[in-house]
Design a protein that fits this description.
globular; 11 helices; seven-stranded mixed beta sheet; 27% helix; six-stranded parallel beta sheet; 343 residues; Quinone Oxidoreductase, Chain A, domain 1; alpha/beta
Length: 343
């Protein structure tokens, strides 16, 4: 069938994104066709577009990792689904049968089905998705649902599944005004933690405070790390969710409390920071990576959003034709929370 989609025929800047008519791939027997209601815009989309993600794409390609839609067509073997179902597509649908999936590490499945990476994503009016990778959204606003899984699923994973956050502990949230950061602040506060939000642009401080942060600091202050430790009474942070990299990673590491946990989920500002091994072993720091989210983690945060306990911030709702503008806004660091496209 024909549909409209934002395609990329090569790697480059936002100008490589072109709205055009395409032939939608035919659904397989275990797949469904969705009419896309909303798709969130992510930093990973921009990395994929520019060719720096270390994830090769088959071109031409359609981006879009967080897809919400209405089921319109079922593959021949699909059961338990019906046209009209309102669903979220898992950003990573695990195979369910590999050793990692069978040992509770489905987020690391090497065979995962990933919209916007291994198949065409949601920057389109229609999309094909695996039937086993759908979560019902009920009456939840599709725009809000699309803004939830990656940011809030990752925040849950870093804080609780990996970080073992306990009530009363101190959390440092770099990039606190962005997609992941604003989710970290909310989820940490929901769990009874004390949170310092870290931002670049000081004008974003009021927004981060409105999320419940106990204090907000800017990396433009050269003494921010010392100020952050002072806020904790000199004890340091129990959990840091670090996805900036570069100088921020290096300074954040020095604010950890002994036996503190630093979880890495990105590195846009520098992928090869310096690591002081002496301080790391003397203080028994825990350094962990965090990749993707398990389906149960996404289902959990969707439930909290539906219950009104978490609020994804949607900075802008845009059309397909505005996809390039959305990517430019990310590059300019003008986004609070997430941007969402509604085809």
């Amino acid at each position: 069938m024909k549909t409209e989609a934002v395609t990329m025929n090569g790697y480059g800047g936002p100008e490589t994104l072109t709205l055009t008519e395409v032939d939608l791939p035919a659904p397989g027997p275990d797949e469904v066709v969705l009419r896309v209601l909303a798709v969130a815009v992510n930093h990973l989309d921009a990395d994929l577009r520019s060719g720096v993600s270390r994830m090769p794409l088959r071109l031409p390609h359609v981006l879009g990792r967080e897809v919400v839609g209405v089921v319109e067509q079922l593959g021949s073997r699909v059961t338990g689904r019906a046209p009209g179902d309102r669903v979220l597509v898992l950003p990573n649908t695990p195979c369910g049968s590999c050793p990692r999936c069978l040992t509770g590490r489905a987020n690391l499945c090497p065979n995962a089905d990933m919209p916007g990476i291994t198949r065409w994503g949601g920057y389109a009016r229609h999309a094909v998705a695996p039937a086993r990778g759908l979560l019902d959204i009920g009456d939840l606003d599709p725009v809000v649902a699309a803004a939830t899984p990656i940011s809030f699923g990752t925040a849950w994973r870093t804080l609780y599944s990996i970080g073992r956050l306990a009530p009363g502990e101190w959390v440092l949230a770099p990039g606190a005004a962005g997609g992941l950061g604003h989710a970290v602040v909310q989820l940490a506060k929901l769990g009874g933690a004390r949170v310092v939000g870290l931002i670049g642009d000081p004008s974003k401080a009021d927004f981060v405070s409105s999320l419940g942060a106990d204090a907000v600091l800017s990396t433009r202050d050269p003494d921010w790390a010392a100020e952050a430790r002072k806020i904790t009474g000199g004890a340091g942070f129990d959990v840091i969710v670090e996805h900036i990299g570069g100088d921020v990673f290096e300074a954040a590491l020095g604010t950890l409390a002994p036996t503190g946990r630093l979880i890495v989920g990105g590195g846009h500002a520098g992928e090869h920071p310096h690591l002081d091994l002496i301080e790391t072993f003397r203080n028994e720091y825990e350094l962990r990576g965090s990749r993707s989210q398990r389906p149960d983690e996404i289902a959990r945060v969707l439930g909290l959003v539906a219950a009104g306990q978490l609020t994804p911030r949607v900075d802008a709702v845009l059309s397909l034709a505005d996809a390039g503008r959305a990517h430019q806004a990310l590059a300019d660091r003008r986004v609070l929370g997430k941007q969402v496209i509604t085809p």
